[in-house]
Amino acid sequence: MFTEDDVKFYLAEIALALGHLHSLGIAYRDLKPENVLLDADGHINLTDFGLSKESVEKNGKTYSFCGTVEYMAPEVVNRRGHTVAADWWSFGVLMYEMLTGDLPFHGSNRRETMSMILR
């Protein structure tokens, strides 16, 4: 777990990074702690762009079912198409986890976790 001040700082930097990616038409699609690294000065770096989607038009949808299930937005789970807004859902899940040390949606298996997300 982090202090509230640390969480504010890290989330501000992550928000700037996501906003920049979105302004370039890139949906990140795999925001989770393992993909957020800290440099020697304590600033964040997003890594692992393997699931990212380029050329996403503003409000354009993508239909790939990808990401880490605990961080997936409902629109990704239900496979009806999602926009870059799905990254902001993952951002909220990450925020919750940083503040509490727990995930908001975590079942005993993938199916149960997805069901919890869709409730």
Automatic annotation (TrEMBL):
The keyword Glycosyltransferase does not apply. Gene3D superfamilies: Transferase(Phosphotransferase) domain 1 (1.10.510.10). The keyword Protein biosynthesis does not apply. GO terms for molecular function: ATP binding; protein serine/threonine kinase activity. Pfam families: Pkinase. Residues 1-119 form the Protein kinase domain. SMART domains: S_TKc. It comes from the Eukaryota. Keywords: ATP-binding, Kinase, Nucleotide-binding, Serine/threonine-protein kinase, Transferase. InterPro entries: Kinase-like_dom_sf (IPR011009), Prot_kinase_dom (IPR000719), Ser/Thr_kinase_AS (IPR008271). This is Protein kinase domain-containing protein. It comes from Brugia pahangi (Filarial nematode worm).
